[in-house]
Amino acid sequence: MDTQQEFHRIMKDRHLMMIAFGGVIGTGLFVATGENLHNAGALGTLLSYCIGAIIVYTVMLSLGELSSNFPNTSSFGDYAHRFISPSTGYVVTWLYWLTWVAALGGEFTAVGLLMQKWFPSVDVWIWASIFGIIIFALNIWTVKIFAEGEFLFSFIKVAAVIVFLILGGGVILFNLFDLGVSKTFENYYQDGWFPNGASAILMTILAVNFAFSGTEVIGVAVGETKNPQIAMPRAINATLWRLVVFFIGTVFIIATLLPHNDARMATSPFVAVLEKIGIPYAGDIMNFVIIVAIFSVSNSGLYASSRMLWSLGNQKKLPAFFGKVNKRGIPINAVIFSMIGSLSALSSLVFAPEIVFATLIGVSGFTSILTWMSVSLAQYNFRKTCTKEMLQKLPYKTPFMPFTPLIALFLCSASIIGCCFDTTQQIAIISTIIFIAICYAVYFLQNKYQTKKSSEG
């Protein structure tokens, strides 16, 4: 499906690893964690992020096998096409495009809101537009510019998270010696184990999955990476446990030091914790870090969404100009259209930015779950077709088969069921289901027309 003849394989191992970090450490961690903590409480939030970590870990193990054996830019859509069905491959490609278009809209909104801390008189949409132009510029020059930019952005925010873990961990250790175990961890039980009920764990899982979404971008980037059969296994092994430690460790510190009633969407929980510790200019420092993080996530998001459109153009499922790649190895038309799709969300920001932000997070989280499910199912089906000789030649093998993809499918399904009971996420779920139905309808109508045309010819 994807010959890769026009893309330039110039990304290196370090780029691939930082893209894995860059796609995932963004507003879902720096901002939305506060809302999750407010809804689910300390213990509920920690458990929901542990569930999310298990999901992303099992999915990435499956992705490692598929992407190292079939390293191409079409990625998830290609795997679903090969090992589920052509129609599902088509829909998954559009779903992953929607994942990042919705995420980009949310990130653009977030950066506009964050910039108002320093420039309160400037409208959100103006900052969002300026930010979008910068991200667009990074993606239309060369893949090397994109990769180096992502490496720099990711390095800054990874360093910030490490500093936060050291400071927060130090405060918790000090409190243990000074206040004792009971007082140090009182946030976990003082209002009950689950202040809003145990069901809040499942109801927040969509936002948690949004926080973890982006790790899978390396499955797209591997199509433009040197020696993908070697680079992908290294990236999987090097990043997975670090991401789990980063997320679970960060959430543990936030939940321990910040009461759930003090956690709010409008203020980053990182800022609240650092201010509580007594770090001067904590708000300004974290505002800068979060903006850098948004740059990183958006950079990866536009890259991934444009490659999905390119793959549809390459397969003749969209007009051929979407599948064109310029001399610098950039699918410029796909980049432009993906950028337009993400900026379209800005038209609603003038009226209800907070509602739009929450809805976009919901759509991105839900479509991420569906994409992950397609990866797990595709890998499960692929493994069933493998002979012993084929297994021996695989550059990377998913461990704990067949349980790894089955665990991912079960937990993703449970997440979807839990999300259906959250009224704030129902709009996102219903919108995504309608989008899926339209995609399937378009695919079958398109196939019917092409079959009719070829029979007449």
UniProtKB/TrEMBL annotation:
Gene Ontology biological process terms in this record: amino acid transport; transmembrane transport
Taxonomic source organism: Helicobacter anseris
Subcellular location: Membrane
Pfam family, one: AA_permease
Protein name, entry field: Amino acid permease
Domain Amino acid permease/ SLC12A: 15-449
PROSITE patterns: AMINO_ACID_PERMEASE_1 (PS00218)
Keywords in alphabetical order: Membrane, Transmembrane, Transmembrane helix, Transport
Topological relation to the membrane, as annotated: Multi-pass membrane protein
Residue ranges of the TM segments: 16-34, 40-63, 83-104, 124-143, 155-177, 197-219, 240-258, 285-310, 330-349, 355-378, 399-418, 424-445
Gene3D superfamilies, per database record: Amino acid/polyamine transporter I
Cellular component aspect of the GO annotation: membrane
Top-level division of the source organism's lineage: Bacteria
InterPro entries in alphabetical order: AA-permease/SLC12A_dom, Amino_acid_permease_CS
